[in-house]
């Protein structure tokens, strides 16, 4: 197992705008809470699976292990996606946007291929549709969950 605490930092210092936007140094910009948004898509289909948040250590763990790690804002702890469910996200490609304040992980999901903790393949299983002026409703894009979260997590979701 990797010793994440003693590993040297993988990130460059942020310098001038041109270097950050057009250079080759990886210098992620974390927000005031020390987090960076990470969009996650299926490597093969391109389907958006989830959006999570990483801090410097979870990003470093992801790079070193090849598996997606996140910072849980609600639990205030690190979590390796799939540690409980078996839906481990194997990172095949990691990209950053032009000003390096967002990440894009292209993954293959182990287990049943699902990502959402409420049982669906993608966390984006509903779409917003307007029913009349000023009125909106959520319609299911994915009709059925892939798995039963009560069984997987041994609790209600």
Keywords:
3 helices; 8 strands; alpha+beta; single chain; four-stranded mixed beta sheet; 157 residues; two-stranded antiparallel sheet
What does this entry look like structurally?
The protein has 157 residues and is of the alpha+beta class. 13% of the residues lie in helices and 32% in strands. The chain contains three helices and eight strands. It has helices at residues 17-22, 56-65, 149-153, and strands spanning 36-42, 48-54, 69-72, 77-80, 89-96, 102-109, 126-132, 135-140. Strand 7 and strand 8 (135-140) form a beta hairpin. The protein is globular and about 45 Å long.
Q: Summed up, what is this model?
A:
With 157 residues, the chain is α+β, with helices and mostly antiparallel strands. It has 3 helices and 8 strands.
């Amino acid at each position: 197992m990797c010793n994440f605490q003693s590993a040297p930092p993988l990130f460059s210092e942020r310098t001038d705008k041109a270097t950050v936007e057009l250079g080759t140094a990886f210098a992620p910009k974390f927000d005031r809470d020390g987090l960076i948004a990470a969009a996650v898509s299926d490597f093969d289909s391109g389907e958006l699976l989830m959006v999570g948040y990483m801090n410097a250590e979870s990003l470093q763990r992801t790079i070193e292990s090849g598996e997606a790690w996140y910072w849980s804002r609600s639990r205030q702890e690190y979590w390796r996606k799939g540690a409980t469910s078996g839906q481990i996200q194997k990172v095949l490609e990691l990209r950053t946007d032009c000003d390096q304040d967002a990440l894009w992980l292209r993954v293959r999901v182990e287990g049943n291929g699902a990502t959402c903790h409420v049982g669906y393949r993608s966390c984006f299983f509903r779409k917003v549709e307007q029913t009349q002026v000023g009125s909106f409703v959520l319609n299911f894009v994915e009709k059925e969950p892939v798995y039963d979260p009560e069984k997987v997590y041994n609790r209600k979701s």
